[in-house]
Design brief:
By secondary structure, this protein is an alpha/beta fold. Helices cover about 45% and strands about 15% of the residues.
Length: about 425
């Protein structure tokens, strides 16, 4: 069979909705300044779908720093990979400061979050090693482990009994292969909003010989007394061996970093193919990250405002009878029961008639009959934004229960 013919016959779990949903539910175009209010299909909406947690995307000091850095350096400098010709003092300064902030000896600046964690895992694991990871880990972790040529085990989400069972299996295997064990989890799970059980996992180090890597994309900048993330929040900074975070959530920027023991970070510098064979992160992004990191550390009021909004929104949803699961972070999922058709009608109603834009998650990402509306509060949302949103949820929730969305025919492109 011709390769393209085969591909066209299997659109994929999301691609099968492309004709009806593209441009509205998938690949929607939000316009205007990044913030709490943006435009969608020509109308202003309250936007709950961008990971601008601390509101830094359009902070005036950030915009100024970005513009000045672009004017000073252009977008090309430094040319070449860091190992060859792309190393600068500012790259080193940023990664070192980030590492010390999260309680680690050294750090390595990475070009992208998804590619970064994928390449970290690929570099750490050989075919004799065993990976044990949370079953609800992000796609970047799953994709990294698909490349792993050794054994891998997924333990039930945040289930320590399941983790122990797989650790026992891993120890039996590595006793024969001479390999090591890497446990991987997230600081905050981006769909559910619950934290990984880092404290309990670290405690298991007393019984089993493994190293712990966490992806704290949704924790860095938001959790902990200083914003140093889920490990700080749970008091286990020293027990986490490798700490990873993207800049895409709290710092509203492209880039990421990995932090840990100096010699392990040195190993990654010389072995991460995605960094060795890729151009260095452009200087305007490095200077932009330095400014954002400065504000993250020195403006605790941003984090305070974020959590005020989180508490107001989440308590308001619970008071109105909505199920937000066991989230204990900023990520706010709202669980409802209904079909895909119900979900599309509800979200269309919410966006077009109530001016509230949030992301929708349906089957096959979650079981049939379930709907998740995922809300990302930020420091720049207002009390009025939250009030309007809560009223909108009450209205569409009542309609869903009454069956008002049954038989809906998706027609946003009409």
């Amino acid at each position: 069979m011709d390769l393209f013919d085969k591909i066209l016959k299997q659109a994929g779990p999301l691609g099968k909705y492309a004709d009806a949903a593209e441009g509205y539910f998938m690949f929607p175009q939000l316009e205007g300044e990044l913030g709490n209010r943006m435009k969608f299909k020509g109308k202003e909406v309250i936007c709950w779908s961008i990971n601008n947690y601390l509101g830094l995307a359009n902070h005036p000091e950030v915009r100024k720093a970005d513009a000045e850095a672009a004017a000073r350096w252009g977008l090309a400098y430094p040319m070449g990979a860091r190992m060859m010709s792309g190393e600068t003092k500012l790259h080193k300064q940023l990664e070192t400061d980030l590492a010390h902030f999260v309680g680690k000896e050294d750090g390595y600046l990475l070009n992208y979050g998804y590619q970064g964690i994928l390449s970290v895992i690929d570099s750490l694991l050989g075919r004799h090693d065993v990976a044990v990871y949370d079953s609800e880990s992000h796609a970047c972790i799953v994709d990294a482990l698909r490349m792993h040529m050794g054994k891998r085990f997924a333990y039930n989400h945040n289930d320590m009994d399941s983790l122990e069972k797989h650790l026992r299996n891993a120890e039996r295997i590595t006793a024969e292969t001479g390999g090591g064990i890497l446990v991987i989890t997230e600081g905050v799970f981006g769909m559910r909003g619950d934290q990984g059980k880092l404290k309990e996992i670290v405690e298991l180090k007393k019984k089993y010989n493994f190293r712990l890597l966490i992806d704290d994309a949704h924790g860095f900048g938001m959790l902990g007394a200083t914003g140093a993330g889920a490990a700080e929040e749970q008091g286990v900074t020293e027990g986490v061996d490798l700490y990873f975070s993207t800049f895409a959530k709290s710092m509203a920027l492209i880039g990421a970093f990995i932090a840990g023991p100096k010699e392990i970070i040195r190993f990654l510098r010389y072995n991460m193919r995605s960094q060795i064979f890729a151009k260095s992160l452009p200087m305007p992004l490095v200077e932009g990250a330095i400014k954002r990191f400065e504000l993250l550390k020195t403006r605790p009021e941003l984090r305070t405002k974020l959590w005020e909004n989180v508490r107001m929104l989440q308590s308001g949803l619970k008071e109105r009878g909505f199920d937000i699961g066991d989230t204990n972070t900023c990520v706010t999922p709202v669980y409802m029961k209904g079909t895909v058709e119900d979900a599309t009608a509800l979200v269309q109603d919410m966006r077009d008639n109530y001016g509230v834009f949030c992301s929708i998650v349906v089957y096959p990402v979650i079981p049939k009959g379930m709907i998740i509306l995922r809300i990302i509060p930020t420091a720049v949302h207002t009390e009025e934004d939250i009030r309007i949103t809560l009223e909108a949820f009450t209205a569409v929730g009542d309609k869903l229960k009454a069956g008002a969305y049954a038989g809906h025919v998706f027609a946003t492109n009409a």
